[in-house]
Amino acid sequence: MCELLGMSANVPTDIRFSFSALAKRGGETGPHKDGWGISFYEQKGCRSFHEPNASAGSELAQLMKNYPIKSRTVIAHVRKANRGRVTLENTHPFTRELWGRAWTFAHNGQLKGIKALPLSFFRPIGTTDSEHAFCWIIDQLCRTYTDYPSAATLDKEIKRLFHVLRQMGVFNALLTDGRSLYASCSKKLCYITRQAPFGTASLIDEDLKVDFSTETTPDDRVSVIATQPLTHDEMWTPLPPDSSAIFRNGDFIA
Q1: Domains of the chain, with CATH numbers?
Q2: Is 190 a catalytic residue?
Q3: In this predicted structure, what is the pLDDT of residue 43?
């Protein structure tokens, strides 16, 4: 299985602390050695970095840990291949354009019969179940709405589509257009919201500690979503199985 990492914040925020833990799980403290990727949003722009090899030994991943790219919305992924060869085109996160915005998606799990779902406008480049599921989601949104719907309408529809996919197998996933971060939990996904008063946190996978009170302002609010907790001295909240969650501006919405 793969591991997911997402972030939603109300101010541009540095994700290097959390990504350091995820990168270690990509072939060192975890078996997820078949590729990694990370996408950062900056207003309507999205910059992505991918490699089809282990993040734990990657010089590019090391650059990501050292270079403070600040963003309000981030999705990252480390892959343990089960369907689809270990290639760049099969490396998450995947990105497509819809309604003039970049949509990004990463997934953990297997979906039985997913490739029987018809696609119209969007097609996979690689061969994974995950990318087919992503194309199906964007296809359904494109067919249903000619332009960007209201937040309430979009939230409801994405939760419905997530529910459909969870009936096909394990669908732990993150989806975003840079405004909202949508999370689907089939079995395992958790989150933490950091806000004032900020404290100190220590990573599980690396000897690294941060005092967030020295890195933030009292108005900052940051939610981090992960397959498993990344720190051992904070209280992470598990999402219920077979559920969806929405994060916006660092807030847990639903």
Answers
A1: 3-252 (3.60.20.10)
A2: no
A3: 87
